[in-house]
Specification:
The complex is a heterodimer of chains A (about 450) and B (about 120). With about 450 residues, chain A is an alpha+beta fold. Chain A has 2 domains: about 140 residues, YjbQ-like (Jelly Rolls, Sandwich), CATH 2.60.120; about 300 residues, Farnesyl Diphosphate Synthase. Helix content of chain A is about 55%, strand content about 15%. In chain A, the strands form 3 sheets. Chain A has a 5-stranded antiparallel sheet. In chain A, helix 12 runs antiparallel to helix 17. Chain A is elongated and about 95 Å long. Chain B has about 120 residues and is an all-alpha fold. Chain B has one domain. Helix content of chain B is about 75%, strand content about 0%. Chain B starts with a helix and ends with a helix. Classes of the chains: A alpha+beta (about 450), B mainly alpha (about 120).
């Protein structure tokens, strides 16, 4: 198997030795490469590669050597724009940098043993900037024997990739998003991406990790905007971005990560994946507008509820399943099955969330969704109940002080609506699991079944 | 006609300025070929409209405007996905990232239209 990735860096000086060793080791760990090789290739004519010791005075010596051997002051025909044809308007005079690059290497291979780069005690791997400062890109490929990541390995991969993606972002957007991501979350969607990315012959754990992180960032961006719309004070036990940083910052943070996730996915270069995720984003945003409109007719009806939930929750869950499989080049039949699996699991997920909202153990203040007029299927069913519906509708029409809220919660519980929704969610999970029958799922079927079942077996 | 098909749930924006914005991007998008020109001009107009609705760099908008802006951004993203042109998708995404990062840092934003015209040019 082969895995691919890119190391993006930004040099800060005209000549600079940028130590890539730690990033290469991280790439090895992220890919789960046990024994094999990591190949690096500079994608620039004025960025070389080298292995040497990372000792500041030595690096100064090496820089001085490059300058002595290939002086800046020498004459380079490359810099004579009166002689050259078709010179771009922003072409720099950098003949010296091209010439110095001849002394370095455009590509390197480092062996990997037992998950570690095989390098000597004093060896470090450098990208050598010769015409900085600039944004640079080094391509890497890993091949050899990869560990089959278990659930823990997959979760660690997701966290590593999220950390990597957030690391480079400007602080005004990156810091609030990092706090939100670090506060927890089930990572349900990225987990599905990584699982279904094993369903085709083109499985590449690093590309799948990038897609998984992008999907989680889309989810997080929707939460940032949702929390502003719902005026929620807390998310995952911490102040929301809007509460902590102000609404204007929350708008910008959400926009930034919508765009960044879109870019990461586009850069993967799989148009089907790009279309799948773009379609899901559109469905989410469309349903959020519907959701806001339906709140005016609160608590709404089952049809409105399903319309919103299919867009707001199920669309991205289904897209996670589909996009992972598409990235791996899975067969069309498999992609269709995991799409239907994801849609059913997504709706069951939201139904269970609604039931959990009526539990003391939800981690949220009891009845918070009711107070925020979030569509809730148990509440819809209970408000249609012959003996309790009228009282519930009457209470919901008022300002809902705590005692009225508690009364609504009690009436919903008495009505049997929670059990009814729970039965429906279990029925959807059976449907989802049924979609996994009779197709080759490359060893991930049991995990997909476990995930579907865990969606309806939870109390928070 | 691609434009009329793409206005579901945001029809009111067309008369409120989206049509004019779309027209403004058409010359730049024309160079991308007949099949994609309308898509790209509309995508650019939707992004500009979205960032305007969301008052990026100014006090936050009312919730419905934020959500309509999100829908405009998502639809623009899907239109660009329909072109299957990776350079365009990356170029537009970078433009939005830059505008959002500047807004979050409370720096002055480059006029969105200029930035998006540059994004179209970069993708040629």
């Amino acid at each position: 198997m082969t895995a691919t990735d890119r190391i993006m860096l930004r040099s800060s000086r005209p000549t600079e030795f940028v130590d890539l060793t730690a990033r290469l080791q991280a790439a090895v760990e992220k890919a789960g490469l046990l024994n094999g090789r990591i190949h690096l290739q500079s994608l620039h004519t004025t960025l070389g590669l080298a292995v040497n010791e990372n000792e500041p005075l030595l690096l100064a010596d090496l820089e001085a050597l490059l300058k002595r051997l290939v002086p800046l002051e020498a004459t380079y025909l490359h810099d004579d724009f009166s002689l050259r044809t078709a010179v771009p308007s922003d072409e720099p005079a950098n003949g010296h940098a091209h010439a110095r690059n001849l002394l370095l290497q455009p590509s390197l291979t480092i062996l990997v043993e037992e998950g570690e780069l095989l390098i000597g005690r004093w060896q470090a791997v450098f990208a050598v900037e010769l015409d900085g400062p600039r944004a640079r890109e080094v391509a890497i490929q890993l091949d050899g024997d990869f560990a089959r990541a278990g659930a823990d390995g997959v979760k660690r991969l997701i966290e590593l990739e999220l950390e990597r993606q957030l690391h480079a972002d400007p602080a005004p957007v990156g810091d609030p998003m990092r706090r939100l991501v670090e506060a927890g979350g089930k990572r349900f969607r990225p987990f599905l991406v990584l699982l279904t990315s094993r369903l085709g012959p083109g499985h590449d754990p690093l590309r799948a990790a990038t897609l998984a992180a992008a999907v989680e960032l889309i989810h997080a961006a929707t939460l940032v905007h949702d929390d502003y719309v719902d005026e929620s004070p807390k998310r995952r036990g911490r102040p929301t971005v809007a509460a902590a940083e102000g609404p204007a910052r929350a708008v910008a943070v959400g926009d930034y990560y919508f765009a960044k996730a879109t870019r990461l996915i586009a850069e993967l270069g799989n148009p089907d994946v790009t279309s799948t995720i773009a379609g899901a984003m559109e469905a989410i945003c469309r349903s959020q507008i519907d959701d806001l409109e339906f709140r005016g007719r609160y608590p709404g009806d089952e049809a409105a509820y399903l319309q919103v939930v299919r867009g707001k929750t199920a669309a991205l869950i289904a897209a996670s399943c589909v996009a992972g499989a598409q990235l791996a080049g899975a067969p069309v039949e498999v992609i269709e099955r995991v799409r239907r699996y994801g849609e059913a699991v997504g709706v069951a997920f939201q139904m269970t969330d609604d039931v959990v909202d009526f539990s003391e153990h939800s981690g949220k203040p009891l009845g918070q969704d009711i107070r925020e007029r979030v569509l809730s299927l148990p509440l819809i069913y209970a408000s249609e109940d012959a003996s309790r519906g009228q009282e519930i509708q009457g209470l919901l029409a008022g300002p809902l002080p705590d005692e009225h809220l508690r009364r609504v919660v009690a009436l919903v519980a008495e009505s049997g609506a929670l059990e009814r929704v729970n039965r429906q969610a279990h029925g959807l999970v059976r449907l989802a699991v049924g979609e996994l029958e009779g197709v080759e799922l490359n060893g991930v079927k049991s995990t997909l079944v476990e995930i579907a079942e865990s969606v309806v077996d939870r109390s928070a | 006609m691609i434009v009329t098909d793409e206005l579901e749930a945001i029809e009111s924006l067309w008369e409120a300025g989206l049509a004019e914005t779309f027209t403004a991007y058409q010359p730049a998008a024309a160079s991308l070929g007949e099949a994609d020109a309308s898509r790209v001009a509309l995508a650019a107009a939707l992004v500009e409209t979205a960032l305007g609705l969301q008052q990026l760099g100014r006090p936050a908008p009312p919730a419905p405007d934020l959500l309509r802006g999100d829908l405009c951004l998502a639809r623009a993203s899907r239109l660009l996905a329909d072109t299957r042109d990776r350079r365009l998708q990356v170029s537009f995404a970078r433009a939005i990232e830059e505008q959002a990062a500047a807004a979050a840092a409370e720096r002055e934003l480059e006029p969105t239209r200029l930035r998006l015209l540059r994004a179209i040019q970069e993708a040629r």
